[in-house]
Amino acid sequence: MAATPPPRILLAGDAHGRLHQLFKRVTLVNQSTGPFHALLCVGQFFSPDGDAEGDVADYLEGRAAVPIPTYFTGDYGPAAPRLLSKAAADAHGFAPGGIEICLNLFWLRGSNRFTLHGLSVVYLSGRKGPGGPGCYSQDDVDALRALAEEPGIVLDPHGYDPVVAELVAEIKPRYHVAGTKGVFYSREPYVNDSAAHVTRFIGLANVGNKERQKFIHAISPTPASIMSSADIHARPPNATLSPYAAPAKPVPIEEAPKRPAENNDAQYWRYDVKRQRQGEPEGGRLCFKFTSSGSCPRGSKCHFRHDEEAMEHYKRNVCFDFLNKGKCERGPECKFAHSLSGEGAVGDARPRSERRRVESSCWFCLSSPDVESHLVISIGEGYYCALAKGPLVPNHVLMIPVEHCPSTLMMSPEAEAELERYKNALGRYFEKQGKTAVYFEWVSQHSRHANLQAVPVPLSKADAVKKIFQLAAKRLGFEFSVVNPDGDANQGRESLRSQYESKSSLFYVELPEGRILLHTIDGTEKFPAQFGREVLAGLLSMADRADWRNCKLSKEEEIRMVDDFKQGFREFDPAE
User: Fold this and answer.
1) How does pLDDT run across 30-72, given as a tens digit for each residue?
2) CB half-sphere exposure, 128, CA atoms < 13 A
3) How far apart, in whole angstroms, are the C-alpha atoms of residue 219 and residue 119?
4) d(CA 226, CA 232)
């Protein structure tokens, strides 16, 4: 089956309220060279003249229709507050993908990142100012450093602002799109410092400008998550050096090909992924979350089947692959039943829940055949220390319980004391390198084996850690609580352990000064699994490394990195 073609996106400059003219042109382009999946508008969307509404009211009141999904950022102009007031009042929660003010028209308010047909889109809305309606602030820019992930598209509200220029130099988008200057300008692609891909800058003129400068432009970029390494590294013959002076040289990106990013449903159904991506019907496939737990947070919106009979068979130890596909490729090595009568499973007197937990493969159980033992740095009684897979920076390590346990907060007091010894040892080791550790853990109801991540950051960045986590939280619509205002990390963890309930989900981060920031995650919240890593990638100006899959090393490189770590850590290792 042929690969899915890349999304086709239209870009437009300042609309200035002239939506009839803009959408007439979009309709013609869509009919002649389309179809296009979306329109992204930069610059001033509303009329700059007095209190004129332009054509916007016709669309808000249903007298005209928006032809394709359209996203705009320039939420300023004399009439903008009045035209947007109803949408602002009706908006609930956090909407990174825009507030729909009428059918097919989305207001990208503030600053954020969202995914559009597989493309990562980062945007700033409004004009530079103190923040609030129609303005973006330094805090909005800083938040994007924390939220930026894979290289994608940056929507720039002005075309040149030193603050935005610095941001673009750091996150290195593949496309930088701007308006407000009244001219069309497509710069030669430029090479980024310490990044594999090139960046293309596109400046767009105003809609309906008298000089007939181009105000609409089409692009069709393949999402970076499914590009091959060769395609990402490709440099056009007309590529130039970067116009920005890089503020710092990030850790070089590994040149391993990227794995395709999982779609939104992949976290609920992790089987037969190849067929799913090739477009086979999904309706007959089982939802893993519902089958294994009896509930699915997507409810009626889930694309996969919620079958109570399958759930009952699963409880009786029937293999999920057998239930889902009618066969199991593990054959006789599978420890679960391949019969709906319940026969055929390997006998075991332990309770079903314990049997599944122990017998299922686990990346972190030292007894598992799937554990990558060459990553292990030190083994204690209750914890072991291992190099992170696809490390954000060198010496990024994980503290992992030896026992199969879903949270470090559930470990015994003896194990907690050992964890503290490991943290003290890592602190002294990192201090010799002029760095300090940031620890974080995401605890989900569906976590299998806990890991506490330790990421070293330069001492010069230590004071900024709290601020950037708080900014990132703000962009996701929540606020952290401080567990231990006095900064006593030991007391903070004791407080966390006493509050923690095994059925709750949470994320916490231990700051360099010892304070612990906590966010309790409710059942309906879609919390980013790589949140902690993404925030630190922004802090360290290496947004391209926010996803561990982009940073995979060869086994030989991992062994070399582990050996180097062991050599320097030996004098501090509490297990020695």
Assistant:
1) 999 889 999 999 999 999 887 677 799 999 999 999 999 999 9
2) 12
3) 12
4) 10
